[in-house]
């Protein structure tokens, strides 16, 4: 991974265990704000997640009391480059998240680009001291890194419009009530809960998990007939997979399946 220029540390940490990768934004003294090297390191971590056959799901979190404050505006104010990575988009994630499921474990604030990183994940687990917001309009900007695109798909339209147009944040409790957050924890507990959720995904057939995510994204906005047409070739591949056969045999033999990922 890339080396930090301010903290002389890795900007993004990567560890894995039992099919779960944990990716940590590691600029706590910058509130995990994202500059170009950090975005490049995050993009590399996501590429590693997708490339490794031993990994089924990822968790992304932030080191320190803040998940991420978004773009490093000090760099931009000094004339530095925007944190955009070819092939991945802003922050190294928002235009092309990994093919494998990704869970955000949020402590503290997830604001602007930090919230957009969380929205690029499939599931969000948050400590009850967390907050989420898109304050771009307060800075003469708009939520261009997926906030205006994804938030109305994740919560009711009117609530998304309120957040985007006022720039005011919401609490983790409110995000949970709106269905954006799938699990609330006490402060300090988000990562452990996200890893437990990831573990419950990682025990399943890797190809089936990856394909299920792909189908959900592929049929978004389609009519019922279109959705079945779009999913048909992917579902056929699953039916013909070695893991599908193994799942049936393991069930019949009353044992745990041994997945091969194909």
How does this structure look, described?
With 262 residues, the chain is of the alpha/beta class. It folds into two domains: 12-202, 2-enoyl-CoA Hydratase, Chain A, domain 1, CATH 3.90.226.10; 206-252. It has helices spanning 36-51, 73-77, 113-119, 147-154, 157-166, 172-177, 190-202, 206-218, 224-239, 242-252, and strands at residues 12-17, 20-25, 57-62, 84-85, 89-90, 102-106, 109-111, 123-127, 131-133, 170-171, 183-185. A six-stranded mixed β-sheet has the order 1-2-3-6-8-11, with helices on both faces. Strands 7-9-10 form a three-stranded mixed β-sheet. Helix 4 packs antiparallel against helix 5. The longest helix has 16 residues, at 36-51. The chain is globular, with a radius of gyration of 19 Å.
In brief, what are we looking at here?
The protein is α/β, with parallel strands linked by helices.
CATH superfamily of the largest domain: 2-enoyl-CoA Hydratase, Chain A, domain 1
What's the quaternary structure here?
Answer: single chain
Report the CATH topology name of the largest domain: 2-enoyl-CoA Hydratase, Chain A, domain 1
Q: What is the CATH class of the largest domain?
A: Alpha Beta
Structural class: alpha/beta
Shape, principal axes of CA atoms: globular
Number of helices: 10
Whole-number total of structural domains: 2
Task: Looking at this protein, list some descriptive labels.
three-stranded mixed β-sheet, 11 strands, 2-enoyl-CoA Hydratase, Chain A, domain 1, 262 residues, 2 domains, alpha/beta
């Amino acid at each position: 991974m890339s080396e930090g220029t301010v903290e002389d540390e890795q900007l993004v940490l990567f560890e894995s265990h039992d099919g779960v990768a944990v990716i940590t934004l590691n600029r706590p003294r910058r509130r995990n704000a994202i500059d170009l090297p950090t975005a490049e390191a995050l993009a590399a971590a996501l590429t590693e997640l997708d490339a490794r056959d031993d990994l089924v799901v990822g968790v992304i979190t932030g080191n320190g009391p803040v998940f991420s404050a978004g773009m490093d505006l000090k760099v931009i104010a000094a004339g530095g480059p925007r944190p955009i990575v070819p092939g991945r988009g802003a922050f190294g994630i928002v235009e092309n998240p990994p093919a494998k499921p990704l869970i955000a474990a949020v402590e503290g604030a997830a604001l602007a680009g930090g919230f957009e990183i969380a929205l690029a994940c499939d599931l969000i687990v948050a400590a009850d001291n967390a907050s989420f917001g898109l304050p771009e309009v307060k800075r003469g900007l708009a939520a261009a890194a997926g906030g205006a695109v994804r938030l109305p798909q994740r919560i009711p339209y009117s609530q998304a419009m309120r957040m985007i147009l006022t720039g005011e944040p919401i609490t983790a409790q409110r995000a949970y009530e709106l269905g954006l957050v799938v699990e609330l924890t006490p402060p300090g507990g988000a990562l452990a809960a996200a890893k437990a959720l990831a573990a419950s995904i990682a025990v399943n057939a890797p190809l089936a998990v990856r394909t299920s995510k792909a189908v959900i994204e592929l049929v978004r906005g389609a009519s019922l007939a279109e959705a079945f047409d779009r999913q048909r070739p992917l579902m056929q591949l699953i039916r013909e997979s070695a893991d599908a056969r193994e799942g049936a045999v393991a069930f019949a033999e009353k044992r745990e399946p041994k997945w091969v990922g194909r």
